[in-house]
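A quick word before the example. In earlier lectures we treated sequence and structure as two separate objects. From today on, think of them as two lines of the same record. Here is Pilus assembly protein TadB written that way.
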Amino acid sequence: MDALIILCIVLFWFLVLLGLRNWSVYIKEKRELLLHISDVTMVDAFEKKEKKRKQRAGLIDKTTKFADEFADLGQRINFFSVNQDVADWLKKSGNRYELTVARFQGLKMMLMTVGFFHGMFFFFLGLPLSQFGIVLTPLLGYFLPIIVIRQQVKQRQQALRMDLPDFLDTVSTSLQAGVSLDQALREVIRFFDGPLREEFTRFIQEIDLGVQREQAYRNLLERNSNQEFQQLIKSLLQGMKLGVPVASTFKLQAEDMRQLREEQVKELAAKASPKVTLVTTFIVAPVSILMIAGLMILNLLYGENSMMNLF
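And the structure line, produced from the sequence above:
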């Protein structure tokens, strides 16, 4: 019976891992198929995904509209969330839920109030440790929007960094073929998804609306803190003033970014070695020594030549 239970558990986890692998293969093939269809039919491959994002943003907007009632209070109680910092976070996170600074501050206080009543409810029920919940749940509600928005900023800048070299290579190839920069950007961003697509789509829209190119570049700098992306935009600004060919700028920036990424990987690998040694020294080695010592003690007590047999 025990063997059957163990076999079922092993089979269950095997099927779970097999399902996850097949799901990842399906997602990858679906993405490749969408890109191929987009290339052949000149249709935006991520248009449907963009619509879903807008629908989700509209739903969040309806859900968080009650936070406007707490906006004034939230702007007064602004510990760890000064209005200027919040505006910077919203700008660099892409503001996918279309929050204003006032609504963000109100959302923070609204969740704090909900957390307080949540803690009081469990306290009246008499649940264990519920007295701590009266303090902890309001704090969690207050800091949750701050943690989430800062995490979104970090993830967005990291995604921007990962897609940038391939994007630059593709744009550079288009420019060398004689296509203008604006037209190359319009064509290339159709094959990218995420913050890179959002930023250059907004850049093109600003150019179409009559914003000066230099100002549009500076807006890109303000919305993103990624060092590599800022280096690219500053190079484009400098090249625009000095008349440097844009294709060369994109190509050199892509090569520099790949070299920098390779150096960063080596640096992380070098930093990982002392950490592995630390874990081995203070965790693996003591546990192994205790296991060997325990086996020796058990052998002395209960083995064939144990001390018990001497008596």
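Notice the following. The CA atoms of residues 180 and 212 lie 17 Å apart. We will return to this example when we discuss secondary structure assignment.
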